[in-house]
Design a protein that fits this description.
Length: about 80
């Protein structure tokens, strides 16, 4: 039990230090290029970090070749 507790505390401290590194450097080159003023624009993959509410503004699409069966009518047998 003591070994489990020591490992848990060590992992918790490791995660906290990793989060501190991300918080100090920021996330995303575009956001850093804008000086961190990315909260209102957040329209890319880092939107969940900068402004989670901005995820509703993202335009998602599903193409038939990616998420569906696909259109195989143009394939001919050789």
């Amino acid at each position: 039990m003591k070994k489990f507790l020591v490992i848990s505390v060590a992992l918790l401290l490791l995660m906290a230090s990793t989060q501190a590194a991300i918080a100090s450097t920021g996330m995303g080159g575009r956001a850093m290029g804008m000086g961190g003023a990315f909260t209102a624009v957040a329209d890319d993959g880092t939107a969940a970090y900068w402004n989670p509410a901005g995820l509703t503004q993202l335009k998602f699409g599903l193409t038939p070749t990616f998420g569906g069966v696909g259109d195989w009518d143009g394939i001919m047998d050789l």
